[in-house]
Amino acid sequence: MTTALSTVNRLDGVLPDIEVAALAPLMEEIEALKRQRNAVVLAHNYMTPDIYHGVSDLSGDSLALAQLAAETDADVIVMAGVHFMAETAKIVSPEKTVLIPDLEAGCSLADSITPADIAGLRERYPDAPVVTYVNTSAEVKAACDITCTSGNALRVIESLDSDRVIFVPDQYLGRWVAGQTEKEIILWQGSCEVHERFTASELRDYRTAYPGIQIIAHPECPTDVLEEADYVGSTAGMLNWVRTETPKRVVMVTECSMSDNVAVGSPDTEFIRPCNLCPYMKKITLEGIRDALRYMKHEVIVPDHIAQGARRAVDRMLALG
Ligand code: 13P
Ligand code: SF4
Questions:
Q1: Residue 2 has pLDDT above 80, yes or no
Q2: Nearest residue CA, atom 2 of ligand 2?
Q3: How far is the CA of 234 from the centre of ligand 1 (A)?
Q4: Could you tell me where in the chain the CATH 3.40.50.10800 domains are found?
Q5: What is the atom index within ligand 1 of the atom nearest the CA of 278?
């Protein structure tokens, strides 16, 4: 039973032994189904540790997941993340079967804008290219010029040959980038329901309660929260920052599971853990991943007429490296 040993080993030191033993049969089932289907599980950094450390084959931020989906040789991709991430995987790998374990794994940012809104913005600012954060539907991507993630938003905006750029839908990420470029940025008023709950005064309280603490934040947080932070970056940027800087104490101002996942490889860092859960990311469970592979559900389909435009916008981003 080499696989049983390997799955248990993956969770060594991640979860208590008793929990690992209880999860082992389910994890074994998932491993067997992955081999049977020639499937990979791609996991976003916000997945719970049982998924992230236990059954994922590849993991990362939204940018890495899009790149990995484009590169994998697997026939089937199970997206352990939210719906727009699965759609992006399908857009860049149309020949593969892309599954999302729960159709309710949505995103409040993605829900904040429609293609009609993009048409309205283009009418108002006809000369400005439209950059969309990947946290949008395929239809919205198809209506925009280029996508970006929190990891490359500045690079994408700087790559455009225009002094004025429309940025949708996250107002906070847009404002954060606007502070680093000479270009005029037209913002949309979308926000992430998880990150907008953090407050600057809460962070100041951490500095008082835990002297020397390092504060690192995701750019979807409100502007005054980002101003309090020692580092701002994508989920992959935050992970790398902790690994490189090895702070004595840190607070990751983002979704709860990030600290749980990063703490596993950072034994010398103390993590202070405010907990704002993303209810959409938390729809994804080991049972859901097992059922996705067992019943080949829920397949993500992007109609050709939408996929074509969306692929142009995503490929243009990926071409920047
Ligand atoms: P990252 O691209 O930084 O992983 O962010 C995705 C996301 O949805 C954060 O809320
Ligand atoms: Fe969307 Fe926010 Fe959840 Fe990320 S954390 S998936 S932006 S609702």
A1: no
A2: 192
A3: 6
A4: 4-105+281-295, 110-191, 195-272
A5: 10
Q: Which ligand is nearest to the CA of 170?
A: 2
If you take atom 7 of ligand 1, which residue's CA is the nearest one? 62
DSSP-assigned states of every residue in 121-165: HHHHSTTS-EEEESSS-HHHHHHSSEEE-TTTHHHHHHTSS-SEE
| Superfamily of domain covering 195-272 | NadA-like (3.40.50.10800)
Per residue in 172-221, pLDDT (tens digit) is 999 999 999 999 999 999 999 999 999 999 999 999 999 999 999 999 99
CA 25 to ligand 2 centroid distance, Å: 31
- Which CATH homologous superfamily contains domain 110-191? NadA-like (3.40.50.10800)
Model-level pTM greater than 0.90?
A: yes
Residue nearest atom 3 of ligand 1, based on CA coordinates: 234
Half-sphere exposure of 292 (CA within 13 A, CB side): 29
Interhelix angle 83-92/62-71, nearest 10 degrees:
30
